[in-house]
Amino acid sequence: MKKIKNGIIMGTALFALASPLLSVACKGPEQNTSGTNETIPPNQQQNKVIKIQMLTPWSVGNDETKITKLKTDIQTSMNNYLQSKNANISVDIKMVSSDDYQIISENIAKGESDLGFVSSGSLVSVNTPDNEFNANIIQTLTSRFLGDVKDANYGTDGMQLQQIAQAEQEAFNKIPWSAQWNDAENGNGWNGSSYTKFYADYNSTDSKNLVGYQRGLVAIVANDEVTQKIIQAWNNKNLAEFVSYGLGIGKPSSGSKYFLPEALMKKQFNTAQNVQLKSFADLSEKYSGKLVQAKFTEASDEKNKNIHIFFDNEASYSYTKYKDSKAYAYAINPTIRPEEKITFLTVTDPLPFNIGILSKNVNSEQISLIIQALDNLNTESIYGRNVGFFGYENSTFADFKTKLKQTLGE
Q1: Are 168 and 263 in a shared domain?
Q2: Lowest CB count within 10 Å: 122, 182, 250, 277, which one?
Q3: Which DSSP string corresponds to 74-105?
Q4: 158-174 pLDDT, tens per residue?
Q5: What residue stretch is flagged as signal peptide (predicted)?
Q6: How many C-beta atoms surround the C-beta of residue 193 within 10 A?
Q7: DSSP per-residue string spanning 171-235
Q8: Do residues 202 and 332 both lie within one domain?
Q9: How much is the pTM?
Q10: CATH number for the domain that contains residue 170
Q11: What does the pLDDT look like over 41-62, one tens digit per residue?
């Protein structure tokens, strides 16, 4: 699963996950003001213009010519599709650079927009009233990573999550992180936004290869001896020793680098009789200096050389293009970390991928039409995969909250 990074998934990326954003505002005489999702009969509908704000993919950057062309292509495609379905709605597209959750939710609350796609991580600490938005949501889908087991969770011992990490590391290790990753014939299949060889089947639309979630990764950066001690501390549920090797964590708002590993470690180290871990905040107080905000991709920085356990988005390397300036993002600098290596210890439980929250003015028929038109953008290779969205499906806030509780235990 891909986190949205600079407009791609990343966790994403809750993570810190940067999220792609679409926001929708409806104009026109038709308003479903009842607060329900009932379909208004076609003979009672008038044409409604839905304004959609879509995040500019990082690959487009700030090139105004490319942005304008992408906007036109998206708008033309969606309106042609909606017209072919005799829909009573059309769209007006605006490309934006902001993915701020506060802006999205405020716009919906003001009635200025009716749909916005946000990262799940940005909702974890938000106390959203059950009746503030539409009971329905749009769940985005992303491509399953090679080695991932669909919907696998911690279970009773977390072994399946460790096996997923091992399988993903096998794919990661085939070609050392280098310029060869970009080689058209002998690399990892870079297509402009992703290394396709790290996915089960990048171009597949089969449901078995699409997932509605993202995971985090727990990675070890150490020599052989320390690596084995860390693994042993994990398996033996020895929290004190595990933390003693230093944890590189994300910001408290991050899904994959904070919420997810925190929840996983609670399941791993806590028992009914012995609650060792209440929170990362509590852990930081108990083990001063052992929890530090540090990125996995900066493990070879001098300031991070004594940190041996890092949290990251699952397979973040799959959408991070190799550049000489990032030579040690996913490789070890032997000068800083002599005789050390990267070991994937485990992935985390799944967290729902980006979701679309809707106002109560959007009915179920309109939601379905929007989903179909968005899916068609992927079919025409215009928009979707380039921000990590490989598909979309109907869901509900209730189901979303259930999944959050299963993973986070809250």
Answers
A1: yes
A2: 182
A3: HHHHHHHHHHHTT-SEEEEEEEES---HHHHH
A4: 999 999 999 999 999 99
A5: 1-18
A6: 21
A7: HHHTS-SSGGGG-TTTSS-B-SS-BGGGBS-TT---GGGEESEE-EEEEEEE-HHHHHHHHHHHH
A8: yes
A9: 0.87
A10: 3.40.190.190
A11: 444 456 888 877 777 888 898 9
The tally of domains found in the chain comes to 2
Mean pLDDT value across residues 142-164: 97
- What DSSP string describes 95-145? EES---HHHHHHHHHHTS-SEEEE-THHHHT----TTSS-SEEEEEEEEPB
Measure the CA–CA gap between 74 and 51, rounded to whole angstroms: 12
Structural domain for 274, as ranges:
158-347
Of 40, 52, 44, residue with least CA distance to 374: 52
Same domain, 326 and 376: no
Question: What is the longest distance spanned by two Cα atoms in the chain?
Answer: 73
118 strand-pairing partners: 355
Q: Are strands 48-55 and 89-96 parallel, antiparallel or unpaired?
A: parallel
Q: Are residues 83 and 218 in the same domain?
A: no
Structure token pair of residue 189: 């299949």
Residue in 387, 319, 383 with CA at minimum distance from that of residue 69: 383
Based on the fold, state whether residues 334 and 363 are members of the same structural domain.
Answer: no
DSSP H helix total and E strand total for the chain: 10, 15
Q: Of 291, 314, 347, which marks where a domain is finished? A: 347
Residue among 341, 310, 319 at smallest CA distance from 328: 341
Same domain, 263 and 123: no
